[in-house]
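Protein in question quoted in full.
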Amino acid sequence: MEENNQEVRLKKKGSNKLIAIIIAAVVLLVGGSVAAFVLTETNSPKASYFIYEKKTLDMLTEQLEERYAPELEWSEKGLENPIEDVYELSAELNMPISGATGPITPEQIINNSTITITSNLDREEKIATAGLKGSFGNFTIEDINFYLTSEEMMLGLPFVNEILQLKGDDFGKLLSQLDPMTFTGEEKLDLNMLFEGNVIAEEDAKYIEDEYVKGLYEALPEEAFESVDETVKIGSDNVDTEKVTFHLTEEQVKEILKDTLTKMADDKRLKEIMIEYLQAQGTGPLVLGENANLEIPNFEEDYDTAIQEAINGLDDVMIPEGFKSTIWVADDIIVKRDLSIQMGPTEDQLVTLYVTGQLSKDKTDIAFEYDLGVVENDLDQSVSFDGTLSNNDGDIQDKLTISIEDIQVIYESNETLDDSKKDFKRTFTLIDETGYTFDLIWSGNAEYNGDQMNSSHELTVSSDDIMDDLVVLYIDKESKVTDSVTLPSDDELKDIGSMSLEELMTYFETEVTPQFEEWLMGIIGFGF
């Protein structure tokens, strides 16, 4: 009997956690993610609340766009045109890594080595290629090539005369021959998703926006919002603001959640969208056969169960203070916020989720500090985000700090942006609870010129026990827009997906292995 009671308590606790996650997601949705659609500007406090959220998000987005305008513009070119990227990698090791005393040491090999990667990508035609070659002293490896389309992948090796080809539709046949107990032969590779930027189709995203984002907004009562003028202290300044309060009672929160979850449970199209998304995240481009013996979650059952548990769990959750979010606005930007919701199965088990913070802004600088936390059993666990962003006519100096208890992650950037030229030094710092400091330093420059760009990068690490420039990685990149991406001709291909297992083994034993041995014997006499 005690075991059954324990099971019920654990199940209820799990359900309450699920409710907490859903409520937190809804809080974020209705509290700040309304940038998915543009609201008609009216004088109502409800509309104003979300308009201010959107304008604040737009302001932060503009900051990113100003800093990375050349990179974003070049990325846009890659969506519409074939792009060729050439990366050359080399390293400098300023310490011995072995006790070797011969004429050639491992650090000499590293310091005299380069690796070149040439990639081509055409998103519209759904073609990608990559070529790899390396020089290690006088020892060179080249002609390693990989090709990918929406229907097949191909591999060229320096010791094989043909280019190996595997079609996506033949992937299951190959797997079932290698492991018939697991795979049925019906599996396929759908390589389209590797070329598509959005996992959720545009029309599906529009459906979710119309049916749920806008639906949630419309479900919020006008009387839940209130606006007054108030002077608040931001940093050392007294700022005149518009204070907008958004408050839902416990009954209103539960009613909105229940209506939304019930609609989700009955919405076949949403279910199809979500299951397709979850399956894509779970299996990637692999399309499974119906009876494949893989330990992969049943997304359809999990989806139905999760929603039903959430609906049933609403009755087991107390939200005594309801949901409350207050924003203080100056010049259409949120300069202070205080959001909180308290919930739990009983009064003794209440958990508080909160977001607090403030932001100040002038012509060139932005400073902010935010805390996201959970209070449970009088224990406050929070994540702090502090930052200063400065952009004075292309002279950029940013610092962001994330603090979790006694651990800090710090990002510092000093950059100059002059039209299409950029010089930068970026430092990522980790400080642990003992005070130990580890830095990853990334410096370099980039230049964008029409249909071409080039950049040079230098990465190194340092810490309390690692001297500066002990290990340095150099990456030089040249990119250009091209007319098209070239694939191998059919007579160069060896279709391994059409072979039986016996034919495949014979091919590798009688053709690939001898060619590999001959190639290897031709290069093992390298020198430095």
User: Anything to note?
Assistant: The CA atoms of residues 371 and 462 lie 29 Å apart. Confidence is low (pLDDT under 50) at residues 1-18, 27-33. The chain is about 30% helix and 40% strand. The longest helix spans residues 2-32.
